[in-house]
Design goal:
The protein is an alpha/beta fold and 324 residues long. It folds into two domains: 186 residues, NAD(P)-binding Rossmann-like Domain (Rossmann fold), CATH 3.40.50; 101 residues, Alpha-Beta Complex (UDP-galactose 4-epimerase, domain 1). It is 41% helix and 16% strand. The mean pLDDT is 95. It holds the Pfam family Epimerase.
């Protein structure tokens, strides 16, 4: 592994960006956080002397170039509303043009399992066909194809790191966040069913150190890699452990595919979840042995420990709300 220059996190204010920033801070490395508005960036990173805060307009090529100027590596975490996935390919295409013009050397896309479609075999290795049957999967596939096609252009090296669903302390966009909030407050937890099918989750704070390693490992570029969790667990078991920590019996409201369709008549997000519900009914489990062979053992938090940390954070947040 070689020493590397400054890293920029585009779309930094989300949970994944904060995990990667924490790893860069731990390594004593300066980094840039880039987002559309300054306030959430200040809130998340203003305390860190290693962090440089920059705003951008991803619709403006000059703004993209300015945000990327002086960076060696860009880590792309830019999200779009769940009902606007068609924005993913043009957004990454504009960003790639800007980072190439700025002379960036490395580009990492944090990706998902959506481009695979249904798992033909588990666990899924990097050789599995990418044949998405959903619109969201097709948009994610187009996005990562643009990233991979840019490898070798204008001195740019690219890679895609594919993650399963994630969870962790106070991560609102996690499928499991409602379980931890429910356990902490004694309320019913709203979850997307089915809840008894094994599912893979990754503890998001484990992701940052791996990405930090990839930024200084030149031989990983030019392809996609998997980063897996620690096996599978059912949502019911997560709820059992979380509510046990609270000294309570689990209380769940489960929204299956039929209920999601009904809720989708009134809630656009619920409507969008129907298309991806196959991932809840048909497990897709990632195999990350290829990455492990290249960079060595990867530290992973057990479900038991991750659930405890997530519950503790939810309880602290609930206490803080109550104290106001």
């Amino acid at each position: 592994m070689q020493a590397t220059g400054k890293v920029g996190l585009f779309g930094a204010a989300g949970a994944a960006g904060q995990s990667i920033a924490a790893a860069l801070n731990e390594a004593g490395r300066d980094y840039r956080v880039v987002g559309r508005t300054r306030e959430p960036l200040e809130k998340a990173f203003g305390h860190d002397p290693h962090a440089e805060i920059v705003t951008w307009n991803p619709d403006d090529p000059a703004s993209i170039r300015a945000a990327a100027a002086g960076l060696q590596t860009v880590i792309y975490l830019v999200g779009v509303p769940y009902d606007q996935f068609a924005k993913h390919p043009p957004l990454v295409e504009r960003t790639l043009a800007g980072v190439k013009a700025a002379g960036v050397e490395r580009f990492i896309l944090i990706g998902t399992v959506y481009p695979y479609g249904r798992a033909r075999i588990n666990p899924v290795s990097e050789g599995h066909p990418r044949e998405p049957h959903t619109f969201k999967g097709q948009m994610r596939l187009a996005q990562e194809n643009l990233v991979l096609a840019a490898h070798g252009q204008n001195g740019l090296s690219t890679l895609v790191l594919r993650l399963p669903d994630f969870y962790g302390p106070c991560i609102e966009r996690s499928l499991l966040n409602g379980v931890f909030d429910g356990a902490a407050t004694g309320k019913r937890a709203q979850v997307v069913g089915p809840v008894d099918v094994p599912h893979e989750f990754i503890y998001l704070p484990d992701v940052g150190p791996v990405v930090e390693t990839l930024t200084r490992t030149p031989e990983v570029y030019g392809r996609w890699w998997h980063l897996a969790g620690t096996g599978t667990i059912t949502q019911r078991e997560v709820a059992r452990q979380a509510y046990t920590l609270a000294g309570r019996e689990p209380k769940l409201i489960v929204a299956g595919k039929s209920m999601l369709r009904v809720l989708g008549l009134f809630n656009p997000l619920m409507r969008e979840l129907v298309e991806m519900n196959y991932l809840m009914t048909e497990p897709l489990v990632l195999d990350d042995s290829a990455l492990t062979r290249l960079i060595g053992p990867i530290a992973k938090t057990s479900y038991e420990e991750g659930i405890r940390h997530s519950f503790d954070a939810a309880r602290a947040a609930a206490s803080a709300r109550h104290a106001k």
